[in-house]
Amino acid sequence: MLLQAPAKLNLCLYLGRPREDGLHELCSLFEPLALADLIEVTSAERDEVICPGVEGENLATRALAALRERGWEREPLRVEIEKRVPVAAGLGGGSGDAAAILRLAAGEVADLPGLAAELGADVPSQLRPALALVRGAGEHVEPLPEPTEHAAVLLPGGGGLSTAAVFAKADRLGLGRSPEELDELAVRLRETAGAGASPLDYPELLVNDLEPAALSLRPDIGKALEELRDRGAGAAVAILSGSGPTAVGLFPDLAAAQAAAAELAAPEVIVCAAGNARLAP
């Protein structure tokens, strides 16, 4: 069986204040990208997850172990992950892999969303990759209509930026909105994105509150955003995805994105369609 685990793009990320559990309240729009890890699942003598390029235990390993702890009785599996989504790049690659493993047990294990939330904040939204309004610390996922066509140019910047470090820096900078402001933003996002519009139709809402924290840790992110906005590339919107360091330029279609990518001097450039995912069974 061949599975796909799409990358996740934060079209916006509004940061709330820390909760008693140490997590942060969020208000965000998530959408899948055509960029995806490929996961081959075959029968084996014992459960095994192989993911070249990722050191140590990853979320997919934890997801499979969690399913077994919940009594999942499927035969032992060998899971081999071909990483195409850059690691530690703010694109939810590990979360997508974990969610793909959880999908194998759909209808066989109770409360997969709850299990997904235990694994990580981005995992619940990836159980069914689609445009969604995400609240709480990621556990509340409200699917929205598929947006009209658009595409993305990604500048991953080598990845390697710790999500925990970015959130800790945001706390030190005193970032964080009130619950009332997050609620108001959620209403605006639901009304705007819920109409099936392209994100390019509401650029004023495409804000990432983690950007100052990420920039302070990785100043090169600013250069990547400037390059995307430059006349050569001319992205209508350039944003940081998640906790970074991936800078993302949005374009009306794939052809426009490919033309813009040809103007960039960055060592790694990824062009992909956005807002739609086709999952293998």
Short description:
28% of the residues lie in helices and 26% in strands. The chain is of the alpha+beta class and 281 residues long.
Description:
- The protein has a single domain (2-273), classed as Ribosomal Protein S5, domain 2, CATH 3.30.230.
- The mean pLDDT is 93.
- Helices cover 28% and strands 26% of the residues.
- The strands form two sheets. Strands 1, 2, 3, 4, 5 and 6 form a six-stranded mixed beta sheet that branches. Strands 8-9-7-10 form a four-stranded antiparallel beta sheet, covered by helices on one side.
- By secondary structure, it is an alpha+beta fold.
- It is built from eight helices and ten strands.
- Helix 1 packs parallel to helix 2 and helix 4 packs across helix 6 (211-217).
- The radius of gyration is 18 Å and the shape is globular.
As for the CATH topology, it is: Ribosomal Protein S5, domain 2
Sheet with most strands: 6 strands, mixed
Can you write the helix and strand succession as a string? Answer: EEEHEHHEEEHHHHEEHE
Form type: globular
- The domain tally reads 1
Low-confidence stretches: none
In round numbers, the mean pLDDT is: 93
Q: Which CATH-level-2 architecture?
A: 2-Layer Sandwich
Number of helices: 8
Q: What proportion of the residues is helical, as a percent range?
A: 25-40%
Strand percent estimate: 25-35%
N- and C-termini, Cα separation: 8 Å
Kindly name the structural category: alpha+beta
According to DSSP, the number of beta strands is 10
CATH class value? Alpha Beta
Gyration radius from CA atoms, angstroms: 18 Å
